[in-house]
């Protein structure tokens, strides 16, 4: 399984998060037809440390994880649940990836007006999540 799959499994396994989104966590994008609330994630950076002979197998990746909901408060609540689940993890093994650490390094607000219905707006909270893990 990839680090993306491991992260998705770990986040959606949390009782508080799962009660809100079930399995509605999507890579890269979700259509406006998706049931709210949901989470969209995408990899935004990968840093690989180099030795004299090769790249180490301990990359540090950053994901932009956006929690979408029909109200601002619901988006913040979902983001807080995700942050509580992942922030500050040290030395843990997810499904297939040994995790060295996980940190939420930034949070920003997001907004997406629905092109079909101007009265239906989508509110989001972006979390930048940094993960250092060992590739297997």
Quick take:
The chain has helices at residues 3-12, 15-21, 72-86; strands at residues 25-27, 38-47, 60-69, 89-93, 98-113, 121-133. The chain has 136 residues and is of the alpha+beta class.
Question: What's the helix and strand layout?
Answer:
Layout: H1 3-12, H2 15-21, E1 25-27, E2 38-47, E3 60-69, H3 72-86, E4 89-93, E5 98-113, E6 121-133
Parallel strand pairs: 1-2
Antiparallel strand pairs: 2-3, 3-6, 4-5, 5-6
How does this model look, in words?
By secondary structure, the protein is of the alpha+beta class. The chain has three helices and six strands. The protein has helices at residues 3-12, 15-21, 72-86; strands at 25-27, 38-47, 60-69, 89-93, 98-113, 121-133. The chain has a six-stranded mixed β-sheet.
């Amino acid at each position: 399984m990839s680090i993306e799959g491991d992260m998705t499994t770990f986040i959606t396994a949390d009782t508080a998060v799962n009660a809100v989104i079930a399995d509605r966590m999507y890579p890269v994008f979700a259509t406006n037809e998706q049931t709210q609330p949901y989470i969209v994630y995408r990899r935004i950076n990968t840093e690989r440390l180099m030795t004299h002979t090769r790249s180490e197998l301990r990359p540090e990746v950053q994901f932009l994880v956006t929690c979408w909901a029909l109200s601002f408060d619901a988006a913040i609540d979902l983001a807080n649940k995700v942050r509580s689940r992942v922030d500050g993890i040290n030395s843990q093994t997810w499904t297939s990836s040994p995790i060295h650490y996980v940190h939420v390094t930034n949070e920003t607000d997001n907004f997406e007006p629905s092109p079909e219905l101007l009265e239906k707006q989508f509110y989001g909270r972006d979390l930048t999540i940094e993960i250092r893990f060992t590739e297997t």
